[in-house]
Amino acid sequence: MKTFSLPMVILFVLALAAVYAWVNASRNRLIIYCAHDALYSEAILERFSDATGIKVTARFDNEATKSLGLVELLIQEKDHARCDVFWNNELLGMMDLQAKGVLEPYKGSGYARIPGAFKDPAGHWTGFAARLRVFIVNTNYLEAGETAIQAALAGDLSRVAMAKPMFGTTLTHYSVLWKTQGAEQVKAWHADLRQRGLQEVPGNGPVKNLVARGLCDLGYTDTDDYSLAFADGKPVAALPVRLDNGQTICIPNTVALIKGTRHRAEAEQLVDFLLSAECETLLANARSRQVPLGEVDETRIPEEVRRFKSWAADGIGLQQVLDARNACLDWLKE
What we know:
Elements: H1 6-27, E1 30-34, H2 38-52, E2 56-60, H3 68-76, E3 85-88, H4 92-99, E4 103-104, H5 109-113, E5 126-138, H6 146-153, E6 160-163, H7 168-181, H8 183-195, E7 199-201, H9 204-212, E8 218-222, H10 223-231, E9 236-240, E10 250-258, H11 264-274, H12 277-285, H13 303-312, H14 322-333
Parallel strand pairs: 1-2, 1-3, 6-7, 6-8
Antiparallel strand pairs: 3-10, 4-10, 5-8, 5-9, 5-10
């Protein structure tokens, strides 16, 4: 029989004690799953903790799979919820969670200040701090105008980039087209893009990097990624991606309580904070330049965010796109 020395036993007991302490501490903390970039969301969550004394533990996703990875994790955990609040970086995945019974309705002070177009009438989720789908153009190689962009998209696409459409806002983009143009047209468009050499990359960040470095002339990305390149002094410009009817694709962050939360009161406080004018103003002034959806002091947000807000006013309603999203995702998974 194998025996253990006293030092080994002591180390084993100490290790067990450390694990117990970590588990116990986690139970006393608010758990948030967050698909928004950690670089910006961590500062927001720290500000909330400093103001309220409520400790928050965040679980983030990676660039390639957000927000789909966290959505699928929450579905897996439905009957044994570990998460209290979900901060998603888009809407359709949140609506899928609502349909699957993962979310808990809540209408607090934050809910009240967000326009009806960006929230669930029953309070299952609420949108805030949006971004838009845009073309990012390297102005050293391509004129930042609608005519030049459409001409570039009509020919060889080896210097055009897009994120893989199974995830994030590119999935939302495809889902909107699936809803407005039909499945067969989207499938044909997708096949044509690939045949003409479109560069498919893991996320919107890599799209931005390719265009900013001059390795691509043009890319499909979001206003937040474009804003990072612009802030870094790269030779880039942005124009909104518009549908055939002239509408834009405005994609809010969303937040919701998870059904089964063990910290309901604290979770409500966090939701209200994320939906506050203070938080939207902070996110508008972050380098990623999120677009406020509720009323804020316009003098406290950057000029380019005010420009994005004018594009957001033409945004298509996303609430009716969920069925298209699920059908499109099933096809992409094949």
